[in-house]
Amino acid sequence: MDLFHTVVNAVLRAFVALFSWAPPSVGLTIISASAGMGMLWVFRRTSDQARIRRVKKKVYAHLLEMRVYSDEPALTWRAQRSLLKVNVQYLLLTLPPCLFLAVPVAVLLIHVEAFYGRAPLELARPALVTAAFDSGPEGPAPELTIPPQFDISAPPVRVLSEHQVSWRVLPRAPFSGELTFAINGRKVTKRVVAGRGPAFVPGRRVRSVWASFWYPDEPHISAPGIEWIEVSYPGAVISVFGWQIPWLAWFVIVSMLSALLLKKRFGVTL
Amino acid sequence: MMTRRAGFIFMAAACFARLACDLFFHYRSSPVAFAYIGPGAGFAFLGSFLAVIGGLALGLISVLTWPFRLIWRTLKGRQGYKNAKIRKLIFLGLDGLDPGLVERFLGEGKLPNFNRLRETGGFRRLRTTFPALSPVAWSTFATGVNPARHNMFDFLNRNLRTYLPELSSARVRGPRRILKLGKYRFPLSRPVVEIRRKSRTFWQILGEHQISSTVLRVPITFPPEKFHGRMLSAMCTPDLLGTQGTFALFTTVRTHGSMESGNEYLLAPCSDGYTGKIPGPQNSMLENGGDLAIAFRLNVSTHPAILEIGGERHPLPEGEYTPWISLRFAAPLGVKVHGIARFLLTRSEEGPRLYVTPINIDPEHPALPISHPTFYATYLAKLLGEYSTLGMAEDTWALNEGAIDEAAFLDQAYLTYQEREGMFFSALDHTRRGVVACVFDTTDRVQHMFFRHLDRGGPYAKTIEDLYRRADELVGKTLQYVDENTVLFVLSDHGFASFERGVNLNTWLRDNGYLFLKEGAAGEGEYLRGIDWRLTKAYTFGLAGIYINQKGRESEGIVDRREAAALKRELAAKLSGLRDPERMRIGIRKAWPSDALYSGPYLDAAPDVVIGYENGYRASWDAAVGKVSAEVFEDNRKAWSGDHCIDPHLVPGVLFSNRKIAAENPGIEDMAPTALELFGVPIPPYMEGRPVLRPKPSPVPSEVTV
Lengths: 270, 706
Hints:
The structure holds two protein chains of two kinds.
Chain A: H1 2-18, H2 24-46, H3 49-68, H4 73-116, E1 127-133, E2 143-145, E3 150-159, E4 164-171, E5 175-183, E6 186-194, E7 205-206, E8 226-231, E9 238-240, E10 243-245, H5 247-266
Antiparallel strand pairs in A: 1-4, 1-8, 2-5, 3-4, 5-6, 7-8, 9-10
Helix pairs in contact in A: 1-4, 2-4, 2-5, 3-4
Chain B: H1 2-25, H2 39-75, E1 88-94, H3 99-107, H4 112-120, E2 122-126, H5 134-143, H6 147-150, E3 156-158, E4 165-167, E5 170-175, E6 178-181, E7 184-187, E8 191-195, H7 202-208, E9 213-216, E10 229-232, E11 247-251, E12 262-266, E13 268-270, E14 273-282, E15 291-299, E16 305-309, E17 312-316, E18 325-330, E19 336-341, E20 343-348, E21 351-356, E22 360-361, E23 371-372, H8 374-384, H9 396-400, H10 406-429, E24 434-440, H11 442-450, H12 463-479, E25 486-491, E26 497-503, H13 505-511, E27 538-540, E28 545-548, H14 561-575, E29 579-580, E30 585-586, E31 588-593, H15 594-597, E32 609-613, E33 616-619, H16 621-624, E34 633-635, E35 642-643, E36 653-657, H17 671-678
Parallel strand pairs in B: 1-24, 1-25, 9-10, 9-24, 11-12, 26-33
Antiparallel strand pairs in B: 2-36, 3-4, 5-8, 6-7, 10-23, 11-21, 13-14, 14-15, 15-16, 16-17, 18-19, 19-22, 20-21, 25-36, 26-34, 26-35, 27-28, 28-32, 29-30, 31-32
Helix pairs in contact in B: 7-17, 10-11, 11-12
């Protein structure tokens, strides 16, 4: 799983680096448009296009039926029933391609989140670093070693019911490196980024291989006892023509628009 | 081995299920794992949502405005169904169904549903119009008046200025205002499309009383009229080229000379097959733009062969029609003209032959108005699939010219029949009250092309019997929609007879000193070319009769009005009983001066002498297009071997009903007043027909005598 994530991550890093000269919205737009095209390709190959076309025509037909027989309210209601029925059929027909798309699109979105969804820690503003354990941290608190660009502004706080320990750290200067935790004699690291501007900002680091599917930015933790470590980064937004919007919204808009514009070229009925 | 494989599949399925579950339920701990899984899902959910919301809004509007519409109707004094004696009236038109054949098959017990109708209701022979032609008869059906009041006398009308033929039912002209910018031409108005049939139809009159009708493919309804109801146009609706149906035949070796209503094109060989171009409509957006065209590629190296056209690939199983294939002709500036066609691949010794039906107007994106409301054609296409929109959908000329064989023609005809059935039953499904009128013309076309096989043995000897059996099944299915508040009429506009000998009346007129050719002209020019109008007193073209070259009416007329009246009688007398010297039989049973048959404001548009051919005879093919041939009588050698344009007394139609028919001698003009009476709507005084279910003798004599 780590290897897979590393490869995906490397490809995305290379891509983002290619557009580092431009505002983040440019790179994201290209990723989103490419994703839209990729999704069209998958949709065409995994859906029953002929049936989707037929059912979509029926949807239009029943909508038109309400106008064609507007003089007969009973028929209007009948058309409503038929419309609901064919809508359900349509949704069922789009289900298989959606299932096929679910995993690859989820992988893409989860990876892209690290590039566009989180901002580095702001300088001189405290942030929380939290570590979760599989059982209560009964012994001494794990030792956190920070780089010189950071201060620990408060001692660790234990949340016994959640099996968690939190530190408050204060970034003093731009930094991209690692925090080191000493737990039961073993060292565990967590990447941390502070400063300005867009950057690759990794999310939670987890021990479970399965959970690493959702948190793929760093390799999974191999040390026993610790479940995950997380730095509370502020969220990032994308600036598009002066509008500040969440990256996922822009991704949805661009991928849908590109699909809409290119569906004929791809021979796809959505 | 199997166990390991099954285990693997199970593991994979379990992993996938877990991932899917996580995707949908785990988002709390991973905010990006939203259920956004692509534009497909996005559009699906958005589209469905909008469709449902749109549907609800339309439904609500319909229900909320219902009381206001009711009040408006009451204030306008429209009676609606208040005086109606029935809830529903169904006209099932079976074009050309012959009473003689019906009686024969009834006698043989082959038409159980017709028999049921006859037993429980009634059956009569139905008088047809002069001449016994579909555009004339169905116009009388719709209006309840004689042709001199609705102005339909034939398929073609002559232009009094140029003597050239014009479509009698409709006129289509380009837009009135065009903006010229360099080589581009931008239409500033819509094309002018006018119906030339006059008078008012019963569905218009019913509509004025808020009684709705669904009128499907009743001839001479192009362009469609606005009325309270729904209409799909029929006979005389052009193809995308603006003609009444022009097929294309692609071959590897030129096998035909010129073809009537079709063109032959050569396929160009390429690496894996052939390429070609389908000619489309004129490019009117460019000065001298020529015709638009769509290139195609025919890959014959695969099985089945593949047709690549418009960026799509269609399998072409040999000997089987494709479904309707969409053809989008690209005009400048992104304008697209939409048509549909079926393709049929066959093989001959010379190589593959690709037949392309006339390019029909695409009902989903109609280039011309073919329905009322305009979106009704689209609605039907979305609901039931694409369908033929051409006026005469069955390509009789392709069979006449040998572009397709009998089997292919029948396949095509019955595909059209199925489309029509779908529309008809959909209309019945959606009609609780009002009128449903639908005409099936496959019955006419198949008899035209297969009459020569009737009772003669061979593989097609039973084709007409099979046709009548299918019609019987259709009646059976229709009866399922008939209850005690429904009146059903099954009717045809005329019957059928064989067409063995053609009569060229231009030749007869020439031989008898009424028509003269210019010096050096042989009379072979189509549409009256080569005729010396300075000397010619009478001429013919079309199927109905003879026209007098009347002074003050025709641009080069020489016969004055008073003389014309005498000339009509003279010609009628001379032609009545005209004998075919070769067969020693009478070719023309009777001829009538027009004023003996018709009365009304459009009498001048009628043929001056209407010809009643004897059974077995008809206007010859040359006479129909205005040629003067060598002989008056000649053999008909075309596949088109049955006809009805003879003495109308010989080819009445049929009238079946689930109610007792009171009229002893009903005529097709009686149908419109019958419809009005059944819904309690006053019959306008100009209507000449009488309700057939009312016990009152018909005032029309059984045979016209002069």
